[in-house]
Each structure stands twice: as structure tokens, then as C-alpha cells.
């Protein structure tokens, strides 16, 4: 069981029992098209299968962890400094590297390392881009941040070994998944209030049409014999009312990342699945409804 390397909005650590309790007891390969910080993927440590995210810096990090000697990334991570001026220089370098078209292996390693450093030292562990796609989160105030993450990088290197890593839209999984596989979707949420804008992961956002596209894909995967589990915010549940074979469960979730401290706390979350109860693991569920 590996812990995530990054802090990531919408991270699923608190909900792991509720999510994995609805996974089927047996499945072939596991796919996670909105992998983000990867709490569920790392917890599961699946063999093979695929992960994907639209965020290309995140994908570069996972590819570097899979493809390079983990000790090279760990050594690069150890070179960073806990200093405000260093942070802003590192942020500039991170954004300059992002602009390069053809990166060398060492430039990709450096970009991956800067990402871990910035994520671990930035304000609230946020990921935010401006309209030009530049990472623009200010420095955070941490006494002792761990941006080396040595043990997790070594462990994740092994877990990722046979995993396909994609960088694009979630629809890729239509080609990648086949009968007997399991797909877990954790898309960006619709905002639950005006102060909690959880669609802010990427300059392009994720709107209702994307949620409908995702529902249509879930229905198609169901017809292919693929198990589907999906987490989302309550307003999305209505899209699944007419989706035959899918059930909706409401659970409470604590949002760890929120720039407004007063707005942290319990929020309802929905879990939608086509896995029949009799085939679910269920042992980790807090309630057996
Ligand atoms: C709720 S987060 C996933 C959090 C993850 N489960 C975790 O534990 O950290 C949603 C992710 O979807 C990505 N994303 C946004 N739009 C996407 C799209 N159209 N296709 C694939 N990924 C997308 C975002 O970059 C973000 O990392």
C-alpha cells in the first residue's frame, strides 16, 4: 500500500474504504482516467492497466518515476532548498521547462523534481494555473516539508512498472478497457459553493457537457462488460437516473484542501457504480445499506 507523493485537490484517501468497498471482488485490469494524486491507484497497487490525466506535468512525473532509476529523482529532489527566494526561482524554472517542446531525459527529470518540490512547499498544496498555463501558486508556510519522498518514489517505481500512462482526455479508456476490467473515475467536481471551486485543476475546466460525455462512456463500458465505479458531487447524480444498471450512494467526505479554512468539513459525495452488491468487496464499507 503506497501513499501518494503529491498533495492533490480531491485526493481520495479519506474515502478509500467507501470506494474500494464497491470494487468487484475480482477483475482483470484496473484503469484510472482521472488519476490526479493517485490515492486509489497507489492504495490498490494494481498490476498492469492504465492511468491518465489531462495535466501533462503530472504525467511527466509519473513517467519519470516509472522509467528512470528512482535514485536519480530522489537525488535531484534532495538538491532543493527551504527558502522563499529559491521557491520563486524554482517556480520560474518549472514554467520555463514546461514551454520546451522536445525535452531531454534530464530536463524531464528536473521538471518532475521541481513539481514534487513546489507541490510540497506551495500554499496549501494547491495546483493552479493562470490563463497562460503557468503554475502560479505562492509559497506556503511549512516548518518541515518533505519534498524528497524517497520511500514513496521507490515504491511507486515498482507499482508503475507495467502500467500504461496516458496524457489526454478520459475517453482514451474506451480503447484501453476490455471485458472484465475495472475503471474508477474521479472527475473534477462541479462546485458545491461559490467559494469551493473544485473545477480549478486545469486552465480548461470541466463542465456539464463533460459530465454527460462521461456518463455516456460509463454506459458504453457497462455494455462492454466493464465494471465502473465513479465518484462525484451530488448534482451529478441526476445524470445517472436513467442509466440502467447503475446505483447511486451518498457518503460524507472531508475535503482536506480548501483555501478557505472555514469551508473545510463534511460534504456529501456520491459514488455511482454498475457493480452489483453481490459482486462488491463491501468488507471495507462503513455502512451496509
Ligand atoms: C478529482 S481529481 C482526481 C483526484 C485523485 N482521485 C486523487 O486521489 O488525487 C480530477 C483530475 O482530473 C484531471 N482532469 C480534468 N479534466 C480531465 C479530462 N477531460 N480528462 C482527464 N483528466 C482530466 C485533473 O487534472 C485532475 O487531476
TrEMBL record:
It catalyses: a 2'-deoxyadenosine in DNA + S-adenosyl-L-methionine = an N(6)-methyl-2'-deoxyadenosine in DNA + S-adenosyl-L-homocysteine + H(+). This is site-specific DNA-methyltransferase (adenine-specific). Keywords: Methyltransferase, S-adenosyl-L-methionine, Transferase. Belongs to the N(4)/N(6)-methyltransferase family. GO terms for molecular function: S-adenosyl-L-methionine binding; sequence-specific DNA binding; site-specific DNA-methyltransferase (adenine-specific) activity. It comes from Halobaculum magnesiiphilum. Its EC number is 2.1.1.72. InterPro entries: Ade_MeTrfase_dom_2, DNA_methylase_N6_adenine_CS, M_m6A_EcoRV, MeTrfase_D12, SAM-dependent_MTases_sf. It holds the Pfam family MethyltransfD12. One of its GO terms (biological process) is mismatch repair. The keyword S-adenosyl-L-methionine applies.
